[in-house]
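Q: Branched-chain amino acid transport system substrate-binding protein, please. Structure only.
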Amino acid sequence: MKQLFDVLFSSRRRALAAALLGGLTAAVSLAQTPATGAPIRIGMIEGLSGPIANTGDAVFRNLVWATERVNARGGVKLPDGNRPLVIERFDSKGQTDEALSALRSAMDKGITIVTQGNSSAAASALIDAINKHNERDTARQVLFLNYSAVDPALTNEKCSFWHFRFDAHADMRMKALMSVLREDRQLKSVYLIGQDYSFGQAVLREARSQLTAQRPDIAIVGEELHPMARVKDFLPYAAKIKASGAQAVLTGNWGNDLTLLVKAARESGFEGRFYTFYGNALGAPAAMGDAGIGKVIAVADWFPNVPTPASEAFYRSFRERFPSPADDYVHMRMQLMIEALAQAIERAGAAGPVNAATIAAQLERADVTLAGQRARMRGADHQFQQSLAVAVMDKQGTPGVRFDVEGSGYGFRVIRNLTPQQAEMPHTCTMQRP
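A: Structure for Branched-chain amino acid transport system substrate-binding protein:
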């Protein structure tokens, strides 16, 4: 076991904070039945070394915090006693073949719930491997929870009974971004750039489709894909963007591929907007600096500056748990994913034996709320349905920007909210159930 976390909140103050977050119950009693049963282990398969290690570490913090909250209220409640949730880490090194090797290691240790997200290519391979394993070994079937791999195919033509996605897929995110971009009547030219793998390709494909449908007057003056996590110097790309005359860049880049791109754009003198999927974290705001004010636009399931008391309490609780500015990376969907899992396990236990198949059957109807954010699982394709928001970068302290990002002095002001119904999109999944 590489790392094992079953930390329980011990102080009265943290128990009260957990109650304020407004999880699955209206309040959390200070006198809980402790979780003393065998831990329910969740295998996190993610890049924890190499060029995208910072993203894997950030996910780990989110999942640890989510399990701590469940464990603070007594863990997962089953007929034979309460059981804590724990996270075990498996390093994929950012490579698909290593992700498959990590899956085998997790299964060899008896883990039947795995989670992954920071690569749609890896997620696709994991789905295939888990499908084959579960058909062959019905006694040790495995459940796959996906928190970030957003290639639309994963819940469409590649949908699987064993796979559940808790992030909005790329087309849903593009729809949210386009709700803002299409209203920018001064925008006449855009440059499309992305990482050369299934997700990046899907982003550019959907960008072309939605631009054609909603703003045919906007010219796509450049379009290219680059190797993922391999480019060290984005200045040549930035030079081409500037030379194209583009007024805006639309990109699904994440991790260092986004940070280095916006740094290079700033150094090259590019003054246009960035419409991004992930421009609100992992160094991007600090890299852009003042040049990003009013120009970097991002889409997410939630932002720290959502103006509600429940949301503020949620964010302050995270920052108390992880006070270092470098650790400031929290995602509501990852918290909701763990809440949905705990809910599904408890429902499965109340109905009979608990295993991957019975948990999956309950996850199909998951309906969870945390910090005022409610989301549900769509059983037909296992795509989580949740609200989405679009926000623009600004200085901390300006109206609507109470909190900054990673101590950078810059935060994101929410400018558009989409309800789950507005964010929802049709699917082509034909679910094969065991």
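A: Brief note, in case it's useful. Residues 396 and 402 are 6 Å apart (CA to CA).
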